[in-house]
Amino acid sequence: MPLNRAGAAAWLAAWAQKAEANVDYLTDLDRQIGDADHGANLKRGLAAVTALDPDGFAGPADYLKKTGLTLVSTVGGASGLLYGTFFLRVAAAWPSQEGDAAGLGAAFKAGLDDIQKRGKAVLGDKTMVDALVPAFAAYDAATAAGQGIGPALAQAAAACAAGRDATVPLIARKGRASYLGERSAGHLDPGAASATYLVEAAASTLP
Amino acid sequence: MKKLINDADAVVAESLVGFEAAMGGLIRVDHENKIVYRLDSPRLGKVGLVSGGGSGHEPLHSGFVGLGMLDAACVGEIFTSPVPGQVAAATAAVDGGAGVLHIVKNYTGDIMNFEMAAELAADSGSRVESVVVDDDVSVQDSLYTAGRRGVGLTVLLEKLVGAAAEAGADLDAVLALARRITASGRSMGLALTSCTTPAVGKPTFELGEDEMEVGIGIHGEPGRERRPLASAAEVAPLLCEPILADLDYRGSEVIAFVNGMGGTPLIELFVMYAETARFLEAAGVRIVRNLVGNYITSLDMAGCSITLLKADDELIRLWDAPVVTPGLRWGA
User: Fold this and answer.
1) Architecture of domain B185-319 in CATH?
2) How large is the average pLDDT for residues B297-309?
3) Is the separation of the CB atoms in B151 and B218 below 8 Å?
4) CATH class of domain segment(s) B12-184
5) Which chain A residue's Cα is nearest to B223?
6) Is the CB of residue B263 less than 8 Å away from at least one CB of chain A?
7) Mutation site for A-interface testing, chosen from B77, B107, B114 by largest number of A Cβ within 10 Å
8) I need a labelling partner for B20 at 20 to 30 A (CA). Which of A80, A137, A202, B74 fits?
9) Every domain of chain B and the residues it spans
10) What CATH number was assigned to the domain covering residues A5-205?
């Protein structure tokens, strides 16, 4: 899909579909080291996002901005605010040229920066940041080597999943799992799991 | 799962309908935004007090809206913080010209959503200050982590700060009082069972018949450590000792709060209060006021928490001041 409203809508629909299909899995991850609401919260927010009509917006930036506001106002908790913040910044930096691989990477990076600014999580805290940092770093490395959006996103998705899986042995330092201390080790972080669906959805729709 | 509900996704909204019908003389509910307001808010010239958080902790926070406590409570989904637009709307609605204090429990989601709400409210001209409650000594504090959870002290703080605001204290004074309370109150909790959220339908963690979970919060999340089930006489020191180790209460007067997690009957909470009072007396801590009951709960979790707050003449006067809310009423 191109980087227009239809492409953005396909990305969000694919993310919603993955989250919906795995709602019990996400909740179960959160049940083990959190408070068992991540699946249900994300499902509610993404249902509100996919109910938006992309044709009702002037362009992809307006549509993605509304997506961010919708996530902030419907998901609740930390994840709603963080994903919402991501889309608000991605919207503001969304490339206007089709096929602008570097521009898309800059938009992702701007969104990730705001997630870290708001959530104050760094690599290794056992949060969504552990999946998203390697994902967008892999994307940038691919585009810097001259690759297009498709292969760059494929590498981002693989790096994202690897970052997600690497959260298992970590002791959480941010978010609700941090209250468990050492008992948080041995569990996969639910936020890293839902973030990986976001990047995998981009890889399957935006190229 | 056995619950008196209709639809797991509608529990919060349907409960607010019943809450307003039952408590309509004290509060009103903005159902669209899920905000509970004091009936006569905004009060001109009075500092507005806004709190809120996930549902499932009732009577906190909606039950503490009214004379001498909160002006508004923002109601989130079960165990999920309210959202920025909701908190900003409540802030604007209760600002009687003297500014607004946000009372926030220290959870990542609550902090971030209230922070963004404060930015939105400041943009529209309200003066907003925030106090973060982080009293749970079972969580090790560190600059590099999310820090301690806000638990039982929240109830005492909302009562005391509410009394000060009602008596006409300005925003700076109310904020200073709130910070003094967070600096001198500590809590510790324990669970005999986990809880079951309506959306999940099974307990958040498994606990054997002969086990208890020590160092739990208020979201049915696992605690720091699992131990063999013990008697009330053994549990009281297990909860009080870490509190006294964290802050020296020896020789102090305190407000002591024995809180039920929702699934423990009052008869057991009073057994716990007797053991707590006995332990504290032996430790040289003098209880001058107390609160016993289910006030900050975790759905149907069985268990309790103990909160100690250093008391002085000012805090005792504020504690005794009139309060008329769905959850706490005295003196009026």
Assistant:
1) 2-Layer Sandwich (3.30)
2) 97
3) yes
4) alpha beta
5) A180
6) no
7) B77
8) A80
9) 12-184, 185-319
10) 1.25.40.340
